[in-house]
Design brief:
heterodimer; A: about 250 residues; alpha/beta; 5-stranded antiparallel β-sheet; globular; B: about 80% helix; about 0% strand
Chain lengths: ~250, ~270
């Protein structure tokens, strides 16, 4: 399955214009604050109205010229927002079972338990979100996003809310996890270091426009913007990581 | 040493705080200490008291039901959607809370009175609203709704939008998002609003007097009964007042729990 995006959105003086050719693996969208990264995710989710076209495998999610605009609840996109947004009045299990369709309640709960086990947080099933650490919350949020068997995953700043120690661990965990899940994934981050761990394709977004698209190697060797150049001059030899090997 | 140097600060603080506290406490205390148990009983058995109690209970509960049923959707719209007219609508729904009760009475008469905008049309169909129990309910809804709306709107507005978005992406329809995520998370704010609205409805006086009149058993609520018995039998007025003070204090005391819950919830969503 591949994800192709061609979006156009105007809000006051802000103009978001993003066209990305089809891609199957992980795309990391990086850019400074205010570049339009979260707005891009909202457009993809369908909670923000926009013009253009989004295609996922054979499914058209948005085709404004043909009047197609699939509502968010029918897009089947797994979404993990910045602060995870777990439903805090529900247990971890109910969070993950919320989106599971079909079968009896017991069957849906079993499915949710399996997902939590797969992500190594099965023991937290009866806790409330307030009692979880940042890393645990993120795994639960990921389990919840996977519960709908999503066609694609969208992650907004998955590492920003974590402290430095948890960050490295979660970054590695996410890197391997996303490859296993095997659906197109878009990760939004203000930190190119996340791209180093996660991305096969990096999209640099600045002021609503795509400043550069390419592998990490491309970005490092031919930075097309001061933002990219500044990052690689601060990190001259980034440690090789699993995410980097997929870069071409 | 330091304490003695700051005596003017602590002294001034204690004096001003104490003066106001005493001033606010004294009238309430007077209601209780000037009334013996026997007099309270005599006041309670005044023929105007029981019907007024019953009518107040009935009408305020109906009003509260109307306010919560119709007000919750409006508060959801105001809290979660921002349109061009939001600010106008929000100002409009707050208006009755700051309007003088006499204005509310005139306005209600002009709208629902026998010759009013809607009232004349209703009168042709044989329905008379003014000077009936229905008019009592309308007065209460008009003046109390803003209290519920303000608290409920604020509660819905302070919800974490990401939780609502995630729920949609998980396949939930807008209605399911409202019932399973929005409502439970905003519950403390809704409870506070409902209680404040009920207290306001119970205390409604001016608009009711002008629009509904003062008929025993039909439109004479507790506050109107106080007004009526005040001249003839002060003990009856005092007995009703005591009941209203106890109820008001009870509401505020019970509400301090949801208020704490609210503060905690706000804290959690920030973390």
């Amino acid at each position: 399955m591949s994800l192709a995006i061609d979006l156009d959105l105007r809000r006051g003086s802000f103009h978001l214009q993003v066209a990305l050719p089809p891609h199957e693996g992980t795309t990391v969208v990086v850019g400074p604050n205010g570049a339009g990264k979260s707005t891009l995710l909202e457009c993809m989710l369908g909670v923000q109205r926009s013009e253009g076209r989004i295609e996922l495998g054979g499914n058209v999610l948005l085709a404004s010229e043909e009047g197609v605009d699939v509502p968010p609840e029918e897009r089947r996109l797994g979404y993990v927002p910045q602060r995870y947004a777990l439903f805090r009045h529900m247990t971890v299990l109910r969070n993950v079972a919320f989106g599971i369709k079909g079968g009896s309640r017991a069957e849906r709960d079993d499915r949710a338990r399996d997902l939590l086990d797969e992500l190594g947080v099965g023991h937290l099933a009866r806790r409330k979100p307030a009692a979880l650490s940042g890393g645990e919350s993120q795994r639960v949020a990921l389990a919840r996003a996977l519960s709908i068997e999503p066609r694609a995953l969208l992650l907004d700043e998955p590492l920003a809310a974590l402290d430095v120690g948890a960050r490295r661990r979660v970054r590695d965990f996410l890197g391997s996890r996303l490859r296993e899940v095997g659906v197109p994934t878009v990760v939004v981050s203000h930190d190119l270091a996340d791209a180093v761990a996660l991305a096969e394709r990096v999209v640099v977004l600045e002021a609503g426009r795509v400043a550069q698209v390419g592998s990490l190697a491309t970005l490092r060797n031919e930075p097309a913007s001061p933002f990219v150049a500044a990052f690689f001059s601060e990190h001259p030899e980034p440690a090789p990581s699993p995410g980097d090997t997929g870069a071409a | 040493m330091a304490r003695r140097r700051n005596w003017w600060w602590w002294g001034g603080l204690g004096f001003s705080a104490g003066t106001l506290l005493l001033f606010m406490l004294l009238p309430v205390a007077a209601l209780f200490v000037t009334l013996g148990a026997e007099e309270l009983w005599a006041g309670m058995s005044h023929p105007a008291v029981a019907p007024a109690l019953w009518l107040s209970l009935k009408t305020t509960l109906v009003s509260l039901g109307i306010i919560v049923l119709l007000g919750t959707p409006l508060a959801w719209l105001l809290g979660r959607h921002h349109g061009r007219w939001s600010r106008w609508i929000e100002t409009l729904v707050r208006l009755p809370a700051v309007l003088p009760p006499a204005v509310a009475g005139v306005a209600l008469l002009l709208a629902f009175g026998r010759r009013g905008l809607l009232g004349s049309w209703l009168a042709e169909m044989g329905v008379t609203v003014a000077f009936s129990s229905a008019a009592v309910v309308l007065s209460q809804v008009f003046v109390a709704a803003p209290f519920f709306l303000q608290s409920a709107t604020a509660a819905f507005r302070s919800l974490d939008g990401d939780q609502l978005t995630v729920a949609r992406t998980l396949g939930a329809s807008p209605a399911r998002v409202f019932f399973e995520i929005g409502l439970p998370l905003a519950r403390p704010g809704l409870i506070v609003g409902a209680a404040m609205g009920w207290a306001r409805a119970l205390g409604e006086f001016g608009a009711t007097l002008m629009f509904a009149g003062n008929l025993t058993g039909e439109t004479q609520t507790m506050t109107l009964a106080i007004y009526t018995t005040f001249e003839s039998d002060l003990r009856a007025a005092q007995a009703i007042s005591v009941i209203l003070v106890v109820v008001a204090f009870g509401i505020l005391y019970l509400l301090s729990a949801p208020a704490e819950q609210l503060a905690r919830a706000a804290h959690e969503s920030r973390d």
